[in-house]
Amino acid sequence: MKSYIVKILQSVYITHDVKCFIVEKPENYDFIPGQATEVAVNLPGWEDKLRPFTFTNLREQKHLEFMIKIYRDHEGVTNLLGKTNAGAELIIHEPFGAIQFKEPGVFIAAGAGITPFLSIFRDLYRKNQLYGNTLIYTNKTSDDVIMDIELRKLLKNNYLKVFTRENVIGFAGKRIDRNFLIDNIADFGQHFYVCGPDDFVKNTTKNLSELGVTSDFLIIEE
């Protein structure tokens, strides 16, 4: 598996527990919007501790960007990344991933599951092809939303936020279950893109399948 050592050019927190990294882009390195790569920190003892993270930048840009949720409750890779700043090095590998844009549809994301969709939305917006897509984005609280201002700019009225642990006036305060899908989606014959924690993806895709969405119209990470 080919690997590349890249320097971190910038690192900054964009929410209380999500950090954005801008890193060098290897020559001729390319990816499809929605894809990810295995990332490790280039420090002794950490080089083989690989974790998958999604590209969030436009593929034409001269750098790579990752938005990574930092888990401080155990001494893992993201905890280390939370303490890692510009000038340090990461090890990245070849791009991979099944999530990529096929046709306009409904994107359903939970938490950091928004990251593959960010790259897709940015790419479609640049091409003036974002029309006809809808985002349903669930988080515990409003403080957890990643890139909220940009998502509002890109999707306007086709952006529905759901908060599971707070009730904010004007926003749904419940989980994305079967009844929620029925209440908020008129057409189950379109494409559906789902990303988030494993249980969220499993439950959401099960509900969508029961509502008539076929596997050909369901795009998830495999």
CATH homology group of the largest domain: Nucleotide-binding domain of ferredoxin-NADP reductase (FNR) module
- Global morphology: globular
Strand order of the largest sheet: 4-3-6-1-2-5
Tally of distinct domains: 2
Task: Note the gap between the termini.
Answer: 19 Å
CATH architecture of the largest domain: 3-Layer(aba) Sandwich
How would you describe this structure to a colleague?
The protein has 222 residues and is an alpha/beta fold. The chain has two domains: 91 residues, Elongation Factor Tu (Ef-tu), domain 3 (Beta Barrel), CATH 2.40.30; 115 residues, Rossmann fold. Helices cover 21% and strands 29% of the residues. The strands form two sheets. The protein has a six-stranded antiparallel β-sheet with strand order 4-3-6-1-2-5. A five-stranded parallel β-sheet has the order 9-8-7-10-11, sandwiched between helices. Helix 2 links the parallel strand 7 and strand 8. The longest helix has 13 residues. The protein is globular and about 50 Å long. 33% of the residues are buried. The mean pLDDT is 94.
Topology:
Elements: E1 3-13, E2 18-24, E3 36-41, E4 51-54, E5 63-69, H1 77-82, E6 89-93, E7 105-110, H2 115-126, E8 134-139, H3 148-155, E9 159-163, H4 178-184, E10 191-195, H5 198-210, E11 218-219
Parallel strand pairs: 7-8, 7-10, 8-9, 10-11
Antiparallel strand pairs: 1-2, 1-6, 2-5, 3-4, 3-6
Which labels suit this protein?
222 residues; alpha/beta; Elongation Factor Tu (Ef-tu), domain 3; Rossmann fold; 2 domains; 6-stranded antiparallel β-sheet; 5-stranded parallel β-sheet; 5 helices; 11 strands; globular
